[in-house]
Amino acid sequence: MALLKTITGSRGDLEFYKVTKKYGCLTRIGPNDLLNDDPVLMRHMLGVRSAYRRSAERFGSGGKVQRDMLGSFVTHGLTQEEAESEILLQIIAGSDTTATEIRATLLYVMTKPPRPQQTPTRNRPIITDAEARNLPYLQAVIKEGLRIFPPVVGLMAKQTPPEGDTWNGAFIPGGTRVWWSAWAMFRRQDVFGDDADEFRPERWLAEECEDGLGGIMGGISASDDRLR
């Protein structure tokens, strides 16, 4: 299984875009690093020239108004440069991670079929997004898929404030970057049980435990709000 390179949704993406736009793309060829001074090369390599062109069409006095992801960027006040950076991120990271997660979850579902009473009727019509969000077992399958096979790699970093911070009785100096592994975090037996390495969507249902695990995903990311 190939290990995808980590691309984080942070300010670093915009800086990366600026550097490659100004100095070109650093391409790995065998054991050598080839520095290219043509910033257009990156656009050719990634096949996103049309996306950049469409981004330019949305800005300016005669900018095209359209309700899609790019239109949402414009509505939320992103500049053209920031929008182009986000486009790059979405094409490289968003599409790959989404497709990988869907494939992995379907594989787990096929190799471990859901409980008979939870299996949907074969001849029912296609459900809407609103209906899907209100199907507890489907939502449990999605959450369990994200848990057992997180579509992100690398270690998500947060940085302590200049004055430092105390966490669980331990002082962390200011400017320290704290990292955590999604793969390891989502396999903690003290949180998910002794079967943390198994695909079991039922663990997310309230009927399986006192409170269910519905808030775990948000709780993990919210627990480190002090680390910025």
TrEMBL record:
Gene3D superfamilies: Cytochrome P450. It comes from the Eukaryota. Keywords: Heme, Iron, Metal-binding. The keyword Metal-binding applies. One of its GO terms (molecular function) is iron ion binding. SUPFAM superfamilies: Cytochrome P450 (SSF48264). The keyword Protein transport does not apply. PANTHER family: CYTOCHROME P450, P450, PUTATIVE (EUROFUNG)-RELATED. This is Cytochrome P450. It comes from Colletotrichum salicis.
